[in-house]
Amino acid sequence: MIRTAAIFALLGSAATAEQYYLSEALEIAKGAPAVIEVLTNANAECVDGNAGELVIFDDRAIVATDLDGDLGRDDSGQMDDWVVDLNYASCTLGALWAGSGGAPISFIRDGSESAAWTGGSWELIRFNEYLPVVILIGRHGGACDSYGAAPCVQAVTVSDEGFLTVLFPEQNDR
Ligand SMILES: [Ca+2]
């Protein structure tokens, strides 16, 4: 039994390694104009930079989720908030955006409202059921006024107020 589970685990990780390109990527989120815009712009960046075309090499590049806490779904039944993480995409002739601080990660609310930060990873947490989720983004240490690989994390909330994050963290006055 243990051996069977291990084999399935291997198959699971292999399935995410399949590459695909812009046309297939657009199919994943065709009801979300802001996702289409982010992907189309990334492809244009590859073309304009003579770096080929956009290639996505991991399913974590385009994820449907709930960011604003409304648990909304689009016409096809998918969650209507999205994350497009270019850490899992590249240009066919080489990455243009991957640096020591990661790549642009776009967060899209209800398919249409988007904001992006450059980072290496992201995660969602929820303080409690009455609050929207909190997006945690692993940023370049420079964004925390430290060295590049220092653990630097930014928190963002998504709600009717838009994308909110602390602008002046050094101010502790009430
Ligand atoms: Ca939503």
Write a structural description.
It contains three helices and eleven strands, in the order αβααββββββββββ. It has 174 residues and is of the alpha+beta class. The chain has one domain. Strands 3-4-6-7 form a four-stranded antiparallel sheet, covered by helices on one side. A four-stranded antiparallel sheet has the order 8-9-10-11, with no helix packed on it. Strands 1-2-5 form a three-stranded antiparallel sheet. A hairpin with a 2-residue loop joins strand 10 (152-159) and strand 11. It is flat, with a radius of gyration of 18 Å. The chain starts with a helix and ends in a 10-residue tail after the last strand. Bound molecules: calcium ion. The site of calcium ion has 8 residues, from loops.
Characteristics:
single chain; 174 residues; alpha+beta; four-stranded antiparallel β-sheet; 3 helices; 11 strands; flat; disordered N terminus; binds calcium ion
